[in-house]
Design goal:
mainly alpha
Length: about 70
């Protein structure tokens, strides 16, 4: 018996695009998350503080300087 030496040809799976309705909740979630992060980095101190003390300020201190927010 002779065996076939031809390799099977690979088939490419069909790529289906994601519907926009599937992406909108993730975009809203990450948008809100980025706004909360921006608040804590840029404005969480002084009169607008949601958390008392200097803990948040100390944790995001270097990020403030990196993004150009004054904090001293």
């Amino acid at each position: 018996m002779a065996q076939s030496t031809a390799a099977p040809t690979p088939t490419n799976p069909a790529i289906t695009p994601l519907p926009v309705r599937a992406l909108v909740p993730w975009a809203v979630f990450f948008g809100v998350l980025m706004l909360v992060l921006l608040y804590f980095v840029g404005a969480e101190q002084g009169a607008t503080a949601l958390v008392s003390g200097e803990g948040v300020h100390e944790w995001v201190h270097d990020a403030r300087h990196l993004l150009g927010f004054p904090c001293h």
